[in-house]
Amino acid sequence: MKIMTKAALAAGLAIASLTAPFAAAPAMAQAAQKVAIVNLPAVIANSTAYQGAQTAQQTTYAAQLQQAETRRAALQAQIDPLMTAFQTARQAANPDQAALQQQAQQIQQLQQNGQAELNQILAPISRSEAYVNEQIEERLGAAVQAAAQAAGVTLVLSPDTVLWADNSHNLNEAVLNQLNTALPSVQVTPPEGWVPREMRQQQQQAAPAAQGQPATSGR
User: Fold this and answer.
1) With contact defined as beta carbons under 8 Å apart, do 180 and 45 qualify?
2) What angle, 0 to 180 degrees and rounded to 10, lies between the N-to-C axes of helices 48-60 and 172-182?
3) Phi/psi class of residue 101: alpha, beta or left (left: φ > 0; alpha: ψ in -120 to 50)?
4) Longest distance between any two alpha carbons in the chain, whole Å
5) How far, in Å, are 188, 197, 207 from residue 210 at the CA level?
6) The pLDDT of residue 9 is above 50
7) Is residue 24 very low, low, confident or very high in pLDDT (cuts 50, 70, 90)?
């Protein structure tokens, strides 16, 4: 069973996406304005602040990472023999389907319980990851705007909205430079009582309802 944390997934983003060509804006739009494309997840993952946070997390949460790895190895040692027995029983001349189903359910339950246990151990790191991302995202909009204005860009798109573009439309490096200048580092340990933005928004929406008042959209 492999531990997949948010930090590991984010760190696995393709670095090459910073310089790879993107989809192009429609020709009519290009005629009227200068268009650029920015891959925001790639910019975040390659930022100095994010990379520094990844390194700091390895030290700050070393105990949790070690605990998770030790527990993962123990769970794997428990599951492997069951998997071997299941494969052997399934290859028998006349396998007992009821017994096979019971074995499969036992293995699946162990895997699910094990993953839940690992997620709980790694919860402080997931919380840290959310805190790091939120700090960077708060500065990202200003970085995009500054890079666009410096390049004379009047329209910024994400790669998902277009089909092809040559590299002249790629604003990733410019945005990354602006972000690195504005935010060279971030904190990896959230303050006491901090919750991610999504949870804060849910709490704000739930508060009026609890008081018998309609929730506002915040717009």
Assistant:
1) no
2) 60
3) alpha
4) 73
5) 33, 20, 5
6) no
7) very low
List Cα–Cα distances, 104 to 9, 75, 77, 86, 174, in angstroms: 28, 16, 16, 7, 52
Cα–Cα distance, 19 to 36 (Å, whole number) = 13
Distance from C-alpha of 177 to C-alpha of 1, rounded to nearest angstrom: 38
Beta bridge partners of 157: 37
Instruction: Check if the beta carbon of residue 116 is closer than 8 Å to that of residue 1.
Output: no
Mean pLDDT of 89-97: 93
Contact 160, 17 (CB under 8 A): no
Return the number of other C-beta atoms located less than 10 Å from residue 37's C-beta: 24
Q: Which pLDDT tens digit goes with each residue over 164-178?
A: 999 999 999 999 999
- pLDDT digits over 145-165, tens only? 999 999 999 999 999 988 999
Residue corresponding to tokens 């500065």: 139
The C-alpha atoms of residue 175 and residue 140 are separated, in whole angstroms, by 8
Pair of tokens at residue 197: 């933005």
Residue type, 88: T
Q: Are 116 and 38 in contact (CB under 8 A)?
A: no
CB of 31 within 8 A of CB of 163?
no
Q: Is the pLDDT of residue 52 over 80?
A: yes
Q: What span, in angstroms and rounded, lies between the C-alpha atoms of 69 and 140? A: 34
Going from N- to C-terminal start, the domains of the chain cover: 6-191
Confirm if 67 and 131 have CB atoms less than 8 A apart: no
Task: Report the pLDDT value the prediction gives residue 161, as an integer from 0 to 100.
Answer: 86
